[in-house]
């Protein structure tokens, strides 16, 4: 069976890997010059079942109104994005009803936890290199109201699903001495020992090489212009240079660009780009090394150690279409967050050593990824992972590969298919 995977971000490469391991003949087509050079390039690097809640929690519309027009807001909608967002936005708000929100959260949590398991399997199977750090993620709270919300949320997630530990300010510093300078500003926090950290770009590069060794073909600089279909069945793809490649199955894992690629076949995918920023800096050698990822929910962002030598600050959400300009205000937000969490480190790091980046998360209106078949025979989707694409990559790849190959399904994908939007 020849399977084409369109897109070599963290979702495409994981799917290609598991398809190859299951015995499929796989070709990955990627328009860029290497793996994971778009949204999977410099994300916040956390694999977090603890963050499974979709963004549209009950009452999100109040937050949107509060943030409207505030350039520093963690969640920002730019006026230019409004027309394209109308129908998507209606569905986004509809899914903030408590019952729907809980169903969607549970779906994400299940896939995140499955994915953490599959990452473990991958590490033992391949020795894939990505600066993996399994020491957990911390969340810090600056007032008692945040602590209360945190406790309620943890109870809601369930201790059997997301192990968590409440921390006092002294407990935070004991676990993470690099936070000593802000101890007095903290009301407390939470520690999620099962969450992980790793570099998604390095992972994708490394897994690509492993997949190649096992027989997968990767073509970079190969932009897919059209998915070819006839009588309701997929035939293959046509590249920008006119070349046609036949396939029995096509998986479109093209991130935010997926809807454009499949529209001509009558497949409507409600995914829109949600821009986020990151800042990658060197870790100052003379200060205590940050040992854990630290989340600050107020900023919708995290400060994350990558290996021994780098710190990455990533997050914030902006609906502004496909615009990839680096807005100085949004970059300044992340510099402020770094200074708010690690003031002494921030003082030591030269602004010119801070690498700013932005990417477009493929966001679905219910906050759950879209994985599985479409109404076109042989055409599958793997997109819409929003803020959880790295956390869900291995699980998505394995579950989709099993569905395509027709193997016994370890992780049923029914609740994730496009058909839920019919
Ligand atoms: C600031 C920020 C922080 C984040 N932090 C986290 C985090 O901490 N944890 C987490 O789990 N997730 C995080 N995410 C989300 C995560 O990065 C994404 O969900 C994930 O990268 C999406 O992967 P993807 O493979 O679907 O898309 P992409 O990485 O965008 O890959 C799609 C690929 O398809 C290619 N492509 C598109 N069109 C075509 C075409 N026509 N022909 C050929 N190739 C094509 C693109 O070039 C691209 O390489 C973050 C995102 C951002 C922006």
Could you walk me through the main structural features you see in this protein, from its secondary elements to its overall organization?
Helix 1 (10-21) links the parallel strand 1 (2-6) and strand 2 (25-30). This protein folds into 2 domains: 2-41 and 201-269 and 366-421, FAD/NAD(P)-binding domain (3-Layer(bba) Sandwich), CATH 3.50.50; 49-97 and 132-198 and 272-363, D-Amino Acid Oxidase, subunit A, domain 2 (D-Amino Acid Oxidase, Chain A, domain 2, 2-Layer Sandwich), CATH 3.30.9.10. The protein is 32% helix and 25% strand. The mean pLDDT is 94. Helix 1 packs across helix 11 (393-405) and helix 4 packs across helix 11 (393-405). The protein has 11 helices and 20 strands. The strands form 4 sheets. Strands 4, 5, 6, 7, 14, 15, 16, 17 and 18 form a 9-stranded mixed beta sheet that branches. It has a 6-stranded mixed beta sheet with strand order 9-2-1-13-20-19. It has a 3-stranded antiparallel beta sheet with strand order 10-11-12, with no helix packed on it. It is of the alpha/beta class and 422 residues long. Flavin-adenine dinucleotide (FAD) binds at residues 6-12, 29-32, 36-40, 43-46, 223-224, 253-255, 257, 261, 276-278, 314-315, 359, 361-362, 383, 385-391.
